[in-house]
């Protein structure tokens, strides 16, 4: 789910950028007057004498953007129930970081605008644009690992939810009680349909549209309804029964293909997947490639002539927005990340170092979609409107540049888990300090001609990649055995040490290698709850003798340090350090040479 989301958002960044450039070119062209005239064109729906009408910009901002926030609601619902946000310890750090990334930018803005005509725009620099951020991370490439993308996506989800709450609370001008009562009744009707498990799309579409109109008339911004409805959409993990029924239907179609069998197979396969996931699959492309770019086209067009730029340079609104995004986001997210880690409130999702986290904090200052959205709600004065947009463009651009520079300069390749050949040159021992003994975890025959000792870390992605390579070598050659020794990189991989302890608990039951394989198959999911689940599968008590297991892991670590282990994975072949590439062909050649030697 996360990977699909990354691909959609990162791929749509170019479309969003093109739409932004087109809006700027249109607004600054000889036909610039037509930009505002076009987006103020009224369009409505008539039912007899009743008429509902908005201009094109409001149809985009109030209508299409409701669908955008509906998709965010779907993502929130999925992640809370089945995804990244189900683990409270993983939520804590990005949630506090998101809060800091909103509080500090708002404070920076108010320092420059408190009591002035632009004071109401404090909400403009608070939100992060997920699409642009993931696009920049795609350019950063290898310096941004998947755990950082997961961290920033979680942060962005919390950021979006908080932004919607701020819009609803602080940017609602007036309330119509009758319309609000109608909206509440319609929402209750939708909740009732969900409770009754009535899944008729037309009913939800009609009630949803009526709820949107009632909310719009009530004075509350209708995008709040979008995220609320998204959260209400049912999400579940496929049950064994549904998977079995789907498999039977597909098998029946394969054996006797027909239109009826195809329809039944399609129906059962669809039912195995929750409505939430099906809607995400259908709506993500529309949201990313159509709705958000159209929103940018409708709102990013700002006049950038000499007069407007001079006004922006002296405007506290432009400076407040720009500095709020550039410095406020960076400082707020950095502090919001450090605090929960310092006090043990939560953990990071993987092998992240501070250079990567600071780079992520910097690019989170790209605040575009929601920032432009709040500008439209916060300001009536066209001049202040323009100055705020210029601040958004400047702050977002500078945040992207700062993030790229941090990733470029602060990423220390020696400071992350990496193959030995990626480490800086250092005089290291060539020989294994502690020979293989009965206390080691050994896979293969005792009289093997080749013994491969691996110092590994269950959370290290490179160890995860070499795991199947070593298994293939062992199965290919019956005279090859593999020995695993623990070397958890605790500062980089906070879940590696608990995983090692659980593997030792499994070893007490003679099931070390079963647990070893489970842990490497589930490297992204090593929380305490996950580890307890894996232990239950093997009938193991995970925390039965923590002190003893910690001591056992410490022995492996000590032997690794004495052997010159500095990163993971590190291999020793027949007691000699292996210094070649960590791919199947290279390790195979080294093993063959040892097998053929006298």
From TrEMBL:
UniProt keyword list: Antiport, Cell membrane, Ion transport, Membrane, Sodium, Sodium transport, Transmembrane, Transmembrane helix, Transport
Membrane-spanning ranges: 58-78, 90-112, 124-143, 150-171, 177-196, 203-236, 286-304, 316-341, 353-378, 390-411
Subcellular localization, as worded in the UniProt entry: Cell inner membrane; Cell membrane
Domain Thioredoxin: 417-596
This protein's record includes keyword Transmembrane helix: yes
PROSITE patterns (UniProt xref): THIOREDOXIN_2
Known role: Na(+)/H(+) antiporter that extrudes sodium in exchange for external protons.
Name of the protein in its database record: Na(+)/H(+) antiporter NhaA
Organism: Nonomuraea rosea
Taxonomic lineage from the root: Bacteria, Bacillati, Actinomycetota, Actinomycetes, Streptosporangiales
């Amino acid at each position: 789910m996360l990977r699909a989301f990354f691909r959609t958002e990162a791929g749509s960044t170019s479309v969003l950028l093109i739409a932004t450039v087109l809006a700027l070119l249109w607004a600054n062209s000889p036909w610039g007057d037509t930009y505002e005239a076009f987006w103020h064109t009224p369009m409505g729906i008539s039912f007899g004498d009743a008429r509902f009408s908005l201009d094109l910009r409001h149809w985009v901002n109030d209508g299409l953007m409701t669908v955008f926030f509906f998709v965010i609601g779907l993502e929130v619902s999925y992640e809370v129930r089945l995804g990244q946000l189900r683990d409270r310890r993983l939520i804590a750090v990005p949630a506090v970081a998101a809060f800091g990334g909103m509080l500090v930018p708002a404070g920076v803005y108010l320092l420059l605008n408190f009591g002035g005509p632009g004071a109401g725009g404090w909400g403009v620099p608070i939100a992060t644009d997920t699409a642009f951020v993931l696009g920049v991370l795609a350019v950063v490439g290898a310096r941004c690992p998947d755990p950082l993308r997961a961290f920033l996506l979680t942060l962005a989800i919390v950021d979006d939810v908080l932004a919607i709450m701020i819009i609803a609370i602080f940017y609602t001008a007036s309330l119509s009680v009758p319309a609000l009562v109608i909206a509440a009744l319609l929402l209750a009707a939708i909740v009732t349909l969900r409770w009754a498990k009535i899944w008729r799309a037309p009913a939800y579409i009609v009630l949803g549209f009526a709820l949107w109109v009632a909310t719009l008339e009530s004075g509350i911004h209708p995008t709040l309804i979008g995220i609320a409805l998204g959260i209400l959409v049912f999400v579940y993990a496929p049950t064994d029964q549904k998977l079995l029924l789907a498999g039977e239907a597909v098998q029946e179609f394969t054996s006797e293909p027909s239109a009826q069998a195809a329809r039944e197979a399609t129906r059962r396969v669809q039912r195995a997947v929750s409505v939430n996931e099906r809607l995400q699959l259908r709506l993500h492309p529309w949201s990313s490639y159509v709705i958000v770019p159209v929103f940018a086209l409708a709102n990013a067009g700002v006049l950038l002539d000499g007069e407007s730029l001079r006004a922006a340079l002296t405007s506290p609104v432009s400076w407040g927005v720009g500095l709020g995004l550039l410095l406020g986001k960076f400082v707020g997210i950095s502090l919001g990340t450090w605090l929960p880690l310092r006090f043990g409130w939560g953990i990071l999702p993987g092998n992240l170092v501070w250079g990567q986290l600071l780079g992520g904090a910097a690019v989170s200052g790209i605040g575009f979609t929601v920032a432009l959205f709040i500008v439209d709600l916060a300001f009536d004065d066209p001049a202040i409107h323009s100055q705020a947009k210029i601040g958004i463009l400047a702050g977002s651009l500078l945040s992207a540049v700062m993030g790229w520079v941090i990733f470029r300069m602060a990423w220390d390749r020696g400071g992350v888990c990496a193959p030995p050949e990626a480490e800086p040159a250092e005089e290291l021992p060539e020989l294994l300090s502690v020979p293989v003994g009965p206390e080691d975890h050994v896979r293969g025959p005792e009289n093997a001609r080749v013994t491969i000792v691996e110092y590994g870390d269950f959370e290290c992605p490179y160890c995860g990649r070499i795991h199947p390579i070593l298994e293939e070598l062992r199965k290919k050659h019956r005279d090859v055995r593999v020995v695993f020794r623990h070397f958890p990189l605790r500062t980089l991989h906070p879940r590696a040490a608990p995983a090692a302890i659980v593997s030792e608990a499994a070893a007490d039951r003679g099931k070390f290698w079963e647990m070893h394989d489970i842990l490497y198959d589930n490297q992204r999911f090593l929380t305490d709850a996950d580890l307890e689940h894996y232990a239950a599968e093997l009938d193991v008590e995970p925390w039965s003798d923590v002190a003893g297991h910690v001591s056992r892991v410490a022995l492996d670590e000590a032997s690794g340090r004495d052997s010159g282990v500095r990163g993971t994975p590190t291999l020793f072949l027949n007691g000699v350090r292996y210094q070649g590439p960590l791919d199947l062909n290279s390790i195979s050649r080294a093993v063959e040479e040892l097998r053929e030697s006298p």
